[in-house]
Structures are given as C-alpha cells and as structure tokens.
Amino acid sequence: MISQEPHISVGIIQKREKVFGTCKGNFILGEGLNFSGSFTAAADGDTAVLRDGKQKEISRGREIVLRAQQGATFILNDVAIGIQFHWQRNENQEFEGDLRFCALRGSLTALNDIGLERYLESVLSSEMSAEAPMEFLKAHAVVSRSWLAAMLERKEKKTNAKASAVHGRHDEEEIVRWYDRDDHGLFDVCADDHCQRYQGITKIHSASVVRAAEETRGVFLLHNGEICDARFHKSCGGRTELFENNWQDTPVPYLQSVSDSPVPLLPVRTEDDARRWIMMAPETLCYMAYCNPANDRTADRKLLKKILPDFDQETVDFFRWKVEYSGQELSALVEKKSGIDFGEILEIVPLQRGPSGRIFRLKIAGTKRTIIVGKELEIRKWFSPSHLLSGAFIVDTLPDARNIPKQFIFYGAGWGHGVGFCQIGAAAMAEAGTAAEAIVEHYFKNTHLKKLY
C-alpha cells in the first residue's frame, strides 16, 4: 500500500520525429550544463538529439533529461489532445517538473517527470473546468488519485516489461477486443483521454483546483484494504455500467451499475427496455438523472458551461443523441474501421447489453459476411469515424425497394464507457449541495476514503 507521494512519468508527445519547445528559466542538462530558451529535439534512430534555438547540437543520447530548477517551466508545441476522438486538436502547453526525451527506432517521446499531487491539479483542470463546484473537484481528485495509484500498483506486480494494449479473442465468426489503460512501456501514464487528461499548468487558472488537491492530499478510495481502480466517464446517460462489460470478464465489486439519480432507475434488461430507456419521454423518471442537462440541476445548461472545458462544450447532445448514415456510408465506414468487407449491411442486432443499455456483444449481418463484435469500445469504434459517444444505442432502418436498408438511424444515450464516476452527474450532485465523500461513495459502492500520506 502506498505510504508517500510518488513521482510519476507522463508521456506528453509520442511517435514524433521532431519536437519543438521552449525552456523558461534554468534547466540542468547532463553534467551540470545550464540551458534555457527554445529547442528542437529529434530522433536519430535510437538516439535523441537536442539542439538549441540556433540549431546547435547541445546533447545526444538514448535519453536526454532536463532537470527544472526553482520556478522553471517548459513549453511543448503542438501537443495532440483528444487523440482519435471527435474533438482532436493540437495545443501549445506549459509544464512544471523535469523534461525527458527518449528515442527508439526513429521515434521520439517527450515525457514530464513530476510529483503526483501537482500532476493531479492539472488533471482536475484538464478533465473538467476549474470553475466547477468545489465538492465535485474534491471528489474528482480522490477518484483520479486512486485510479492512478491502482494502475501503478498493477504495473509493479506485472512480470512482463510491457502489457499488451489490446486484449480479447478473434475468430472467423466473432471478434472481441478491449483496451487497457496501463499498457505504456516508456512512462507511467499518458496525458490524454486514453488514461486521464493532463495538460500541464496551461489550464490551471483557478485557486479552486489547487485547494481541492490540497484538501484531499493523500486521500484514496479503498475497498477491502486495497486502492480502487476508480474509472470515470463524462455522462452515464442515467445509469452506470458494469466493469466486466467493457474490460476483463471478472466483475469488480465496487464497479457495479448504480442509478445516477435521486430516485431508483430500473436497469435495462430487454430490447424493449432499451428502446424505452433511450427514447425516453421528458416525464419519465430518467428525466431525474443527475447527468441530464435538461433537469433542474443543470437548467439552461448553465452548469455545463461552468464545469466543461471549451472543447467539451462543443458536444451539445450527449445525454440522448442521434447519428444517421446512408446504407452506403455505413457499409464503407464499417469496412474501413474493421477491415472486414460485409458487403451491404442488412442488419445490426444487439446480442448482449449491460444495465445502462450499453451493448457489449453485437451482430453485424451483411450480404457477404456476418460477424459478432465486442466489447463496448470496439463497437463504438466500428460505427463512427472516431467513436460513437457510447455503446448504449438502438438502430432504426429505412428499406429500399429491394428491402435492404438505405438508411440507418442510431439513437443513443450517454457519453463514454459508463463505468464508475459519472463526471457530469457528480458535478450536478455537488451543485445541489452533496459533499465530496458522499458523491464518491454514491458511484463506488462498499468503499471508503482513507488518507495514506
């Protein structure tokens, strides 16, 4: 069990030939060489090469470390965020801590070595807005800290140097894949949505996130004496999902399905349930869900503007959403994303859903092939140029003269995998006056908070 604050390595930029940036303040390079100003780092095979603003080579090696002195920060240009999601873009970002470059086979990785607590302040203001309610920020601090520590403990227990990124099985009739968050070899955690967002000090423009991290310093979520693998997502859509429907088949006691509501919401058990749930009427109990932007807690979307970063606010419809494709568009998209030529797609049949309505086993039947696909994220990947917002969807079709679908209409619920902490729901609970500890324990049953350092 962790007993002191760990220092971690964060992968900021990966698989680049060159990285451009600026050291602000004094950094120590190698055996006492002082460095500041603009730089270019490049990969030369398995060797990293660092040049100053005049393109003079100042260091070369498999690994180059620039150690930050008092008050020094560094800027990295063109950092990709939202990688492979619909909001992907590049930003210039500023960081505290040490800067490290590693080269491997002509590819460069830029890393930031930093203490967990300062890292956490950036996570809070990168995942959500620093203007979010204080009790929400404190709850998120506990969740993010716990997830990271649990991931580090799992990594220590593994005997292999690097875990596989993709798990599952694949045969002629069924493809099942899920994706781990602890598959990085050169660093502990990446800086994007694959792990949790970390955008340096660029987004820390409020004392609230600093206070939230300080007031929960060293506080973790525990179950049976172990730190919880505390997963989180944007919006569950009214009910959270089971861990095993997204990742390994083994259930996790504290990652169960709970109502994101002050009143009980029944789980989805049948396809009729799924249709009623997703095509909900405003007067149904699902209207009461904390993460529903139309309910009283998020009236006029004021709370969303307060809690979501600017680029997340571009996703307007997430509690319930709709996507349409022509038959030709969908067949081409699925072939591109899956690598399988189904011919014309005839039907999309959910075979297994979780209690949140998310599909984790689905049949696609075409004129050439029929395949079963899972789990939830893989399904989302196949039906979108990036990802569908969630796997909780139903599909309506319009047939052509041959009785082959000429249009597919996806109606969906929620944003993200739905497991664990619902960020928008938790923010609504905090806005209504719920304390951080109660918020965390609402989403993670049979757990408790404990200060470990």
Any overview of this molecule?
It is a single chain. By secondary structure, this protein is of the alpha+beta class. It has a domain at 8-114. The protein is built from 9 helices and 24 strands. Strand 11 and strand 12 form a beta hairpin. Helix 2 packs across helix 3. The chain starts with 6 loop residues before the first strand and ends with a strand. The model is unreliable at 159-163 (pLDDT under 50).
Topology (elements, then pairings):
Elements: E1 7-16, E2 18-29, E3 33-44, E4 47-52, E5 57-61, E6 63-68, E7 73-81, E8 89-95, E9 98-104, E10 107-115, H1 116-127, H2 134-157, E11 166-170, E12 174-179, E13 189-190, H3 207-215, E14 219-223, E15 226-227, E16 232-233, H4 271-278, H5 302-307, E17 320-326, H6 327-338, E18 345-353, E19 359-366, E20 370-374, H7 376-382, E21 393-399, E22 405-413, E23 421-422, H8 423-431, H9 436-443, E24 448-451
Parallel strand pairs: 1-13, 12-20, 16-23
Antiparallel strand pairs: 1-10, 2-3, 2-6, 2-7, 3-4, 4-5, 6-9, 7-8, 9-10, 11-12, 14-15, 14-24, 17-22, 18-19, 19-20, 21-22
